[in-house]
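User: Hi! I have a protein structure encoded as tokens and I'd like to know what sequence might fold into it. I'm fairly new to this, so please keep things simple.
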């Protein structure tokens, strides 16, 4: 069953992460990276989502042959993701190691990307509960499901590389926050709201203090820059601005769905949010 499904799941070269080290559960060095031998959760989930988008576009163009072609690709991918990568015992999806013929079980934020792309056929309540339990069991959120950090770390390894703890990357925040929110599960939306607030607060701190949006953040320090790896921390920054604006655009929904009611129109939270969005838009346009 595994070997048949692995053929369905597409292998492509992706960003260098500790996930691609040949020796499981070891830090290794860049020379130990063996990306072609790892079937990644995140890449295949994004391919599934893209195939669905292409199918819908071709359908709008009345090109039903291509619409059906990409719909079939999407269906095969989601079957492969479910059969090869889903771990019901853990409540997440795991990369598949072709050399060692087993899952890579360490915690990485990529393990929840199918929640964001919808690359699964698990009922919303069930998958929301499973993922929340997984995050709690990995100690990335607290036992009462409250937020443990100022954003979600890429991993829990302290390797001094930029793709590991304590670095939090903006796209990974969006994957988790929006993925949890889209399940429509009450507790998942509460956690999504808390994560969104923590991340935006850290963004706002760095922007207020120095007019800087970092490429990545240190999730243990509010407004702290990420670090490690082979180059100096970058500022700017495209995906940080994009994720911040996405969360700010959805922020009212987060607050309203995770509390007893919507915030007052003159609340300090709303004023700060609107002011920050205005400043950020001005910064981007420069």
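Assistant: Happy to help. Inverse folding works backwards from shape to sequence: for each of the 286 positions I chose a residue that suits the local structure. Here it is:
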């Amino acid at each position: 069953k595994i070997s048949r499904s692995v053929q369905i799941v597409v292998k492509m070269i992706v960003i260098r992460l500790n996930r691609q080290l040949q020796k499981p559960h070891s830090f290794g060095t860049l020379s130990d990276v063996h990306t072609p031998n790892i079937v990644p959760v995140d890449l295949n989930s994004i391919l599934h989502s893209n195939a669905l988008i292409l199918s819908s576009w071709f359908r709008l163009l009345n090109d039903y042959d291509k619409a059906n072609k990409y719909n079939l690709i999407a269906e095969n991918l989601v079957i492969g993701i479910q059969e090869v990568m889903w771990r019901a015992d853990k409540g997440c999806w795991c990369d598949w190691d072709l050399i060692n013929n087993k899952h890579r079980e360490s915690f990485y934020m990529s393990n929840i990307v199918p929640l964001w792309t919808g690359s699964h056929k698990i009922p919303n309540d069930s998958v929301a509960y499973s993922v929340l339990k997984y995050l709690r069991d990995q100690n990335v959120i607290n036992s009462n499901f409250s937020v443990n950090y100022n954003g979600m770390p890429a991993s829990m390894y302290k390797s001094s590389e930029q793709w590991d703890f304590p670095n939090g990357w903006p796209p990974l925040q969006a994957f988790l926050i929006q993925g949890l929110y889209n399940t429509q599960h009450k507790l998942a939306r509460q956690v999504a709201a808390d994560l969104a607030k923590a991340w935006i607060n850290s963004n706002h701190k760095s922007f207020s203090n120095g007019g800087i949006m970092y490429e990545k953040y240190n999730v243990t320090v509010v407004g702290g820059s990420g670090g490690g790896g082979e180059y100096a921390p970058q500022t700017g920054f495209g995906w940080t601005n994009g994720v911040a604006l996405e969360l700010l655009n959805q922020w009212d929904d987060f607050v309203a769905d995770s509390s007893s009611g919507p915030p007052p129109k003159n609340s300090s939270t709303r004023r700060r949010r609107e002011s920050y969005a205005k400043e950020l838009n001005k910064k981007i346009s420069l």
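A useful reference point when you look it over: DSSP finds nine helices and seven strands in the chain. Feel free to ask if any position seems puzzling.
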